[in-house]
Task: structure prediction
Amino acid sequence: MAKKPAVQTALHKVIMVGSGGVGKSALTLQFMYDEFVENYEPTKADSYRKKVLLDGEDVQIDILDTAGQEDYAAIRDNYFRSGEGFLCIFSITEDESFQATQEFREQILRVKNDENIPFLLVGNKSDLQDKRKVTFQEASDRANKWGVPYVETSAKTREHVDKVFYDLMREIRARKMEENKTNNGRGKDKNKKKKLKCVIL
Amino acid sequence: MDFDSPDVMKDFPGLYASELNKKCNNDSDYSDETDKGNKKDMLIGKRKDKKDKKDKEKGYAALEGESSADEECKSRSPSKTKKSKSFKFTTKSKDKREKSREKEKDTGDKKKERDKKNDKKTEKEKNKKVKNYEDALDIAEALPIFGVNLETAVERSRCHDGIDIPLPIRECIDYIESAGTSFEGIYKISGTKSKVLLIRKMYNNRQNINLNDYDVPTATSLLKMFLRDLPEPIFTSDSLVRFEEAGAILNLNTREKHLKILVDNLPPLNKLLLSWLIIHLDNISLNQTHNKMTKQNISAALNHTFHSSSRLLHALLHHCRALFPDLTITKYIPPLSSGQTLPDDLETMEIELKKQESLLTQIHTEMNVGCISKEREELLWEVQRIITQLKRKIKTAHKEKEPIVPQEKEEPEPVEVSVEEPIKEPEPIVEPENRPTEPEPTLENTIEHLEEIPQDDDNDKPMILTDSSLLLLKFKNNGLLALKERLERNILEEQKEILSLKNQLLPEKPSVVPSNEGLDELMSLLQKENQILQINKINLVRKIIEQQEICIELKAKLELSNQV
Ligand SMILES: Nc1nc2c(ncn2[C@@H]2O[C@H](COP(=O)(O)OP(=O)(O)OP(=O)(O)O)[C@@H](O)[C@H]2O)c(=O)[nH]1
Ligand SMILES: [Mg+2]
Result:
């Protein structure tokens, strides 16, 4: 794991969640390859890796683009568990997708068992203002309630696309540094236990 | 029935192999070949010394590791008490576990502790999904590859190219075919116990194994161990007796016909595995000038492994090309890992995508039952990444091919799409038998065979029918006809007997099943015992018939000479 972040390039694992058709893949592809695809192709699961410069530091980002469609929900847990940070996407043009974020949040907390997991609430398709169904206010209220940032993006115009990924990576990085500190201090016992267990296995 | 009938036992020394392996495993995991003498001792309670002598006479290369393991097992269960002991090793935890895990057999070390652990874990497995690493199951314990039934083993250790034989077997065959067919005494000489056990453990842990790091005897011993650890013989418990019967037929054409029918009726996975093994062993025998392993030698070295007689193995090897006409052994190329460069041409990419998706499915399956670890998650993301890359590449390749009408390729699902289209071997058209429902094939086969003797056998020399030879044949025929009649009467009686026994059996069954704990164990032991008795019977029947045949021939000659 990230025991020696100074030596190895840090790797941050980001997971895209949200209902079908909200633009998870569109955001990912825009971030990865600067491309935007108009036609909708539901995802089962996709994974990407990219080298980026995060505040002057070379890091790698792993992005896991999950399925919004319920048909593929069964395998989500396996991915959620290994995610270090989450972008929870809805479309500002579809209220249902906004309501669904509540469930996604719960599922993530259930799997990760961690209230402070790096997490951003993202309202996508901000270029479609005339079709807006979810107001900025109600979305940021929900984000406040959860104690997470709220950002609006457009995968089409690339507005705030980099921002959401970089902001999340910063949160993940901060989180890891915090963990390292506690591990070096009183957290040693915990480490030992884990190690012992590994040996047995 | 006489258990001590030495010839019969010589032919079926491997029957109790799995039971014994388990027993030995408490002390020593290494069961391969160690119990050659032992299991017979268990059943018969003697003749250990004889057997040892015989081995030496035959020039069996007995490795140190083996003989010591042999001793170890032996000393724990002195031969005198063996028989009764073999009925006692039922432990409650094991019994429970077997039920809950559909009779997977444990092959690992520290069996007892593990049984207890597994009990707990299987419960967990059922009740809730494992969420965190502390609750994670150890994959080697929860989902072992060795010692489980074939279907499970294939599921757990897939070859991702769609050929559904267990990975350890495939890799052993690949390695042996490429490196070892000229190794002298191959399959007879055993590998080092500790190495074989280590590799088994690595397979159970899903580690990557490069058999090139080891040697031929190690690979052959591993392969043999895998097969012997199977809870059910590859011929299936139901059909083993029939296979033995068919293998004992003397007339080659009839034998082939019967074996073919039996082979084609095996469950697909059993048939596939059998075909690969037999063709592989045939390849070994083709190199007998170097490796000194004739079909005969191979059969003698592997009969325990197959839980069968060497006669049956020999028969399968003899007819292998007719039984498995279309099979060629292809080397397994595993899915690429992330360091390797992806292929460029469309067809190879599609093949690779299938493999990766099969692998992904397997990882998900393992994780879904609670076998989670950082490494496995790492692998999950990696495989997923390769799949994503491949799909992108394939898409652009398609676009380049047909720029205007992009081919709507249905994307395979990562979860459900596994190796769902395994090689469907073209079902060879089985010639329908004259008597499709034979209740007692033993006798009939033999009769058939006896009838055919005069017409065709190995020697195709045209017969010169002199008066006396014609007469001889006539006498013989009379004798045979009488025999046939007698046997047919017997069959009828036996059928009646079977029917009445069945009637007695039916109403009892439901009341017995739920009652006792050790009953299952006892039942399976009795079934095994029954099996061995049946095979003994067949052998005796075969011998009787052979004798009768000789008698008839002699009688005919006598009559002829009387006439003259
Ligand atoms: N106008 C506009 N359209 C968008 C935007 N983001 C995505 N879309 C469109 O919305 C549709 C769905 O986008 P996807 O990215 O495939 O949706 P998804 O969330 O990945 O859906 P699933 O894979 O089924 O979970 C596509 O037709 C995209 O072109 C956006 O920011 N603006
Ligand atoms: Mg998508």
In short: DSSP finds 25 helices and no strands in chain B. The radius of gyration of chain B is 27 Å. Residues 1-128, 405-462 of chain B have pLDDT under 50 and may be disordered.
